[in-house]
Q: What sequence folds into this?
C-alpha cells in the first residue's frame, strides 16, 4: 500500500506562505534575503539531514500485514522518504533536497533560495516566489534542530490520524 504522508517537506509543511500582489493584481515575489549572518545564523550554516520523526500518537504506516503502530515514524519510512536535507550557506543561499542521495528515488525534489534565522529561532526561507516561516529549536551544541507541527497521516488501514509530530535534523558538516 502506498504510504500517503507528507514526504517530509517538513519545514515546508509547517510554514506560512506569503505572496503579495501589487495594484495591477500581479504576483510580486518576496525579495531574496541578504546581509551578513548573525552569530546564531553562523551556527546554522552547513548541511542538515533528517534524522528522526516522532509523533504523539502511535501510527502504523507500513503495509506488512502486522499491526505495529509506533510513535517512531522515521523507522517506518523507506530510504528514499528519509533522504531529506537542507543546506544553509554563509552567503545566505539555501537548498532543500529530497531523494537526491539515495539511488532510484521516484520523487526527487530540489528547491533553492535564500534563508535567515531570527534571534527567536524563526527560520525564514525565500524560494519559488514565496516566503516560508518556521519556528525551529536548535540544541545547545548546534548539532541538531527540531520543528513541530500537526501533521495529517493516512495509516495502513486508510484511517486519517492528525498527530503532533517532531522532525529532527542533524548537522553533517
A:
Amino acid at each position: 500500500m502506498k504510504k500517503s504522508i507528507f514526504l517530509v517537506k517538513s519545514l515546508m509543511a509547517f510554514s506560512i506562505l506569503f505572496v503579495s500582489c501589487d495594484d495591477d493584481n500581479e504576483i510580486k515575489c518576496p525579495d531574496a534575503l541578504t546581509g551578513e549572518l548573525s552569530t546564531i545564523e553562523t551556527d546554522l550554516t552547513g548541511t542538515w539531514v533528517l534524522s528522526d520523526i516522532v509523533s504523539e500518537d502511535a501510527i502504523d504506516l507500513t503495509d506488512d500485514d502486522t499491526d505495529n503502530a509506533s510513535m517512531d515514524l522515521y523507522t517506518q519510512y523507506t530510504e528514499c522518504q528519509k533522504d531529506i536535507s537542507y543546506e544553509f550557506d554563509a552567503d545566505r543561499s539555501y537548498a532543500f533536497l529530497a531523494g537526491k542521495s539515495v539511488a532510484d528515488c521516484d520523487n526527487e525534489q530540489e528547491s533553492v533560495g535564500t534563508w535567515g534565522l531570527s534571534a527567536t529561532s524563526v527560520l525564514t526561507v525565500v524560494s519559488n516566489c514565496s516566503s516560508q516561516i518556521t519556528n525551529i529549536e536548535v540544541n545547545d551544541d548546534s548539532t541538531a534542530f527540531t520543528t513541530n507541527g500537526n501533521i495529517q497521516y493516512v495509516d495502513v488501514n486508510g484511517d486519517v490520524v492528525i498527530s503532533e509530530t517532531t522532525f529532527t535534523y542533524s548537522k553533517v558538516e
Residues 39-44 form the longest helix (6 residues). The helical segments are 10-13, 39-44, 79-82. The chain is about 10% helix and 45% strand.
